[in-house]
Amino acid sequence: MKAARYYGPGDIRVEVIEEPRPKEGQVKIKIAWNGICGSDLHAYLTTVVKFPTKTEANELTGETLPITLGHEFSGTIVDLGSGVDGKKWQIGQNVIVEPVISCLKTGSCGPCTAGSRNICPLANFIGIGGWGGGLAEFIATDVRYVHHLPDSVPLEVGACIEPLAVAYHAMKRSGFEKGKTALIVGGGPIGLFLLRILRSIDLESTIIVSEPATIRRSLALKHGASHVLDPVKTDRNVSEVVMGLTNGIGVDVAFDAAGVQASLDVALASIRPRGIFMNVAIWEDNPRINMNLILSREIVVTGVMGYDRVHEEVLGAVASGKISGLGELITSKISLEDVVEKGFLALLNEKDTQVKILVHP
Questions:
Q1: What is the pLDDT of residue 285?
Q2: Which residues belong to any copy of the Enoyl reductase (ER) domain (predicted)?
């Protein structure tokens, strides 16, 4: 089968590899769509993401580079391994995969014992640590990671559930609720998914998006932002504008979905006393943090690592229409052969025209 294989920063190759067979407790999935994630882009540029190396295997998968990329994917079951419940899992079912993997050592690992696999010390992802990936024609994976995709949800939207779950977990951890105000710094896929989620909770609250790319600002307005700011062209600091839009109080929650020093500075300066700063971004460099600002305003600073048991809730919200419009955020659909030129490089170099790119193996 064809698969996009990651050899290291700047080195992704579409190759022919052996097609997987489902082992005991696994299902084989024919991939329909795989979204290119921000963490994939970070991996293309640098080594900040937790990939194995050519000589050091991942502790959970035992794999070294190269590995098959892709962790935002949907598909259809085409085969069942031994021991799989044939009443629950059937050939022809559309599914998604929740790709977080962990040590699963209940009793000795506190997070895994509590069920919070995403913050296990060894936590990683299918498609990053190994065990196949969505940028391939097929994957065989344990049923513990698989969720049924409701009939009302198209496979294209199914490939957006994984990043949507990241945004949903961030919303829950932030304590955002009806009547609260928010700033989203960064209008990429996660930022726009956050916007859709916040609007599903409150149609009237002030939600501000700061984003330099034209198409992303346009989509933010279309999908419910109260105000959209261009941090490059505004004649005042974004935080000053935010303060003006909130009667000098500041927002209840600021989400950083950009992960650069300027976004952190703006987010912290825009938060009301005892407000929440929620980091959703992966950072390539360690930022400087104004601890005296945090001290003087008693700001709560936190972040999210993926998601924690929210997929079923997210799937229900999408299937019911509570969270909608996700398909409108998909700006391109490409073939696996074009994954580097029309996928990775397009997202890095064409931010004024691209938001979410899906790959069809």
A1: 87
A2: 8-359
